[in-house]
Design goal:
The chain is α/β, with parallel strands linked by helices. The chain has helices at about 5-30, 45-50, 70-75, 80-85, 120-130, 150-160, 180-185, 195-200, 210-225, 255-260, 265-275, 280-305; strands at about 60, 140-145, 165-175, 175, 180, 200-205, 230-235. Strands 1-2-3-7-6 form a 5-stranded parallel β-sheet, sandwiched between helices. Strands 4-5 form a two-stranded antiparallel sheet. Helix 1 (about 5-30) packs antiparallel against helix 11, helix 1 (about 5-30) crosses helix 12 and helix 2 (about 45-50) runs parallel beside helix 3. The longest helix is centred in the N-terminal third of the chain and has 26 residues, at about 5-30. Bound molecules: thiamine diphosphate and magnesium ion (MG). The site of magnesium ion (MG) has 6 residues, from strand 4.
Length: about 325
Amino acid sequence: MSIPGTVQLALYRQMLLIRRTEEQLVRSYQLGLIHGACHTCIGQEAVAVGVCAHLRPDDLVFSTHRGHGHALAKGVPPRAVIAELFGRATGCSGGRGGSMHLFAPEVGLMGTSGIVAASILQAVGAAYAFSLLKQERVSVAFFGDGAANNGAFHEGINMASIWQLPVLFVCENNLYATEVPFASVSRNPDVAVRAPAYGLPGQVIDGNDVLAVYEAAAEAVQRARSGAGPTLLECKTYRTRPHSEGMRDTGYRSAEEVEAWKARCPIKGLAAYLLSEGTATESELAQIEAEVQAVVEEALAFAERSPWPDPSTLTDHVYSL
Ligand SMILES: Cc1ncc(C[n+]2csc(CCOP(=O)(O)OP(=O)(O)O)c2C)c(N)n1
Ligand SMILES: [Mg+2]
């Protein structure tokens, strides 16, 4: 598959936007400006970007506790993400949700979630609705390696397979579930090989290579949209920050391992490729960097000057009979 230079540059810009936004979230967390958990996807950006590049606004994404990248890649503005983590009324969930409850149905982001593996069944449910309504829409479940050992994984992919539902299962295998190595909870290092057992295609992809993810997702989205059924994509990747901000990052993985994966940074990797292929010059990449940085600075300023939710709205959105 030949990916046009303009698309490659768009993928680069989107990954950089996620990276710079999350680096800002880390700084803000360290200053005590963010309450609650903050799981970054620093190091894993290529997965969200390579998949979401193929989605339309009315395609639906169901995300995880590590979902800032999915939200941004699906089109939630950085200012709405930062404001949400700051608890401000202008956040995408009105400041009531925080990192693990980012919702923006208008762009098809159906929620980040602290419930591991929930995204799998939610995406299957949405795809079932699309299929009943005869709509050519696609749903995506992002989930981690830890979620792949939750019963929901097996129920979800089996049901999607028997009904040939338009869904992509995207496993972000970052080798750990919190501090539990995947190697210690699965005799088989690959999740993708489970797919044929349920009668759907599965593919292992270098999740730090955005072009590889883009290519695999193109086929999977096309399959789903054309009624040919679900696909399981397993993207091997790595988070270079602790599981969640404020948590320790020693005792379960080595500094050497983290450094080795940092050297495989998906953004640096694509930059080197763009330069070597002559798709972009140093100054063009610097220009993108400056533009992204400006967007993030503006988003931060927006969040800082945004109001807190009005106390009189305290009971809004609270379910009652
Ligand atoms: C149903 C459920 N079980 C357990 C937890 C506790 N928990 C929070 S994050 C996490 C690890 C998830 O690992 P993985 O799916 O690999 O995602 P990653 O954090 O690596 O992105 C666990 C077990 C939870 N939040 N929900
Ligand atoms: Mg994991």
